[in-house]
Design brief:
This protein is α/β, with parallel strands linked by helices and 220 residues long. It is 29% helix and 17% strand. The protein starts with a helix and ends in a 51-residue tail after the last helix.
Length: 220
């Protein structure tokens, strides 16, 4: 057993949270949605979920998180720096990694910095451009459960796809329920294959330090 798997096993034995998860192939690739994203503690749960399942994973983070001494640690934890001032090459880079044979699950938090309304659409653009399936990861404070839910193949019909996603998250409250954001994209009315109007850089909010309003650690 790896050190990470052992650490995750210990976490789930002592944590107040219960892991209820569906399995995805360890040698596969895909996008893992982390929602509702309401606290920086979500990152700890995400690590514990992925390490327990022994999944190779990556997450997108603001390039500023990778500066100085923190950079090696962030990369060791699977981080991919994204410069939001120049996000155009992000999807090309991800496609190139996959075509080169790299297999990983990309963790994305569409609620971003947890402000404003709706979800950011970067995850949808990346999934459609790469052909990767989308697995719905969740955190639910009301039941104290977390894990991975169903895996979807996005169709290009934005509204229909988001209806499925909304149905799954309808009863999920998040770590801090008051900060939950409705799963809704701005361009759902555009029709099939119109695609969301935001660029892939919108997905660059999956890092562990993307907000200063971290939730209380009392439930971890």
């Amino acid at each position: 057993m790896s050190v990470r798997a052992a650490a995750a096993g210990l976490f789930w034995r002592v944590s107040r949270w219960t892991l209820r998860t569906e399995r995805v192939p360890r040698d596969g690739s895909g996008i893992l949605i982390g929602a509702p994203h309401t606290s920086n503690w979500d990152f700890v749960l995400m690590l514990a979920i992925a390490w327990e399942a022994r999944l190779p994973f990556r997450w997108l983070g603001k390039h500023t998180l990778f500066r100085g001494l923190a950079g090696p640690a962030m990369r060791a934890l699977g981080g991919i720096p994204v410069d939001r001032r120049d996000p155009a090459g992000l999807v090309d880079d991800l496609v190139a990694r996959i075509r080169a044979g790299e297999r990983f699950y990309l963790v994305v938090t569409p609620e971003g910095t947890r402000s404003g309304s709706g979800w950011k659409s970067g995850f949808y653009r990346i999934a459609r451009a790469t052909g990767l399936p989308v697995t719905l990861g969740y955190v639910d404070r009301t039941t104290m459960t977390t894990g991975l839910g169903p895996t979807l193949e996005l169709t290009g019909d934005v509204r229909a796809d988001m209806d499925v996603i909304r149905a799954f998250y309808a009863d999920k409250a998040g770590f801090a329920p008051g900060r939950r954001t409705e799963p809704r994209l701005r361009d759902e009315a555009a029709g099939p294959d119109a695609g969301p109007d935001a660029g892939p850089g919108d997905a660059a909010d999956a890092g562990p330090g993307d907000a200063a309003d971290a939730g209380s650690p009392d439930g971890a």
